[in-house]
Structure formats: C-alpha cells, structure tokens
Write a structure and sequence with these properties.
heterodimer; A: 108 residues; 0% helix; B: 112 residues; seven-stranded mixed beta sheet
Chain lengths: 108, 112
Amino acid sequence: DAKTTQPPSMDCAEGRAANLPCNHSTISGNEYVYWYRQIHSQGPQYIIHGLKNNETNEMASLIITEDRKSSTLILPHATLRDTAVYYCIGTGGFKTIFGAGTRLFVKA
Amino acid sequence: DAGVTQSPTHLIKTRGQQVTLRCSPKSGHDTVSWYQQALGQGPQFIFQYYEEEERQRGNFPDRFSGHQFPNYSSELNVNALLLGDSALYLCASSLGQMEKLFFGSGTQLSVL
C-alpha cells in the first residue's frame, strides 16, 4: 500500500468548502485513493474513492492530480457535523491501512 | 438493511484472560476485516477473513486469532490479555476483498 501524508489538523468555517490535502507520491498505477472519516466514538465511514479521474458523490468530491502523487478531498459546504478525523489511503485492495489522518474542526 | 453489528459494545477483562469479540457483516457482504484502535491513533489492521480463511494479516502476535463462519459472521479471539490490548476493536465488512469497507461501531475492551 502507498504511504500517505496528511496534515495533522485543519480548521474550516461552517458553510465554507473544506479542502483536505493528501500526498501519496509512492502510489502505484493500480492503487486507488480512498477517503474515510471517523466521527468521535464511531467506526470509520467510507466517503469516496478514485483511481485517475476526479470523482463526486453526495458527500464529497475527490480531485486527483494528473501524476497521481497527490489528491484533495473537498467537502463543498462544511457543517459542524463534518468535524471528524479524515483518512486518506492508497491501496490496491486486500488490506486497508490507516494512517493518523487529518483532524478537521468545523467552526460556527 | 442492517449494517455491521458488533458485540459486546463494552468489555472489561483482567490481564491473562481470554476474550472473544463478535461481528455480523452487512447483509450481502462476504469479507470481514478486524482493526485495533488505540486512543488517539488510527485503526491498525489485524487480519481479514474471506471464504472462512485468514487471507491477510497485519503485524499482530499469534495471541490474536479469528474465525469466519459459513454465514460470514466472524469472531476475534485474544489470548493472554495484556494491558496494552486495551483499545477499540473495529470490525469492517465488504463485498469481496478489495472493495470499500463498512465499519461497525466497535467493541471497547479494557484490560485491568
């Protein structure tokens, strides 16, 4: 699995877009970028994943650079309920390895 | 549609004891993965079960073992408990070994 690097914490104002970066310079061609989040005391929740193209779903958008060495998770209109730890994972499957993630604080 | 369910939610054991944690996967899922999460850290991969066999294993000692049943449910067993085994144990299920994970709420294990 690819090693990923994320900032330990970020702040975002409620209603604004939250842009969470992730570096995965060692990612191989067949490894996907997955994002999960974990709200306090709950199990992680799947958000989105992608291989090469940008992806969007009802929760977020994922922007992957053309060289695939980094990506950005975008929460378009952050709410207080989006306060959580966000994990970026590069994986080819079989086992999903979590790092320390980014602790996002959404402030009113 | 029931999601991933884990039991018990909380458990207190003493050093040296053995513990069994249980997990029922999301309906239709056939693969179960177990994670250990210490306070303030990300989940650490223990192992994955598919077709009733352990397919992948993380860096955990043999005291950690598991089982998957024909109905895809799974158990995690930890023998000779240590204080350091105190953690939140998370179960995740997926449809196949390489798909997105759905997590349960976990079992909080305290070893005294």
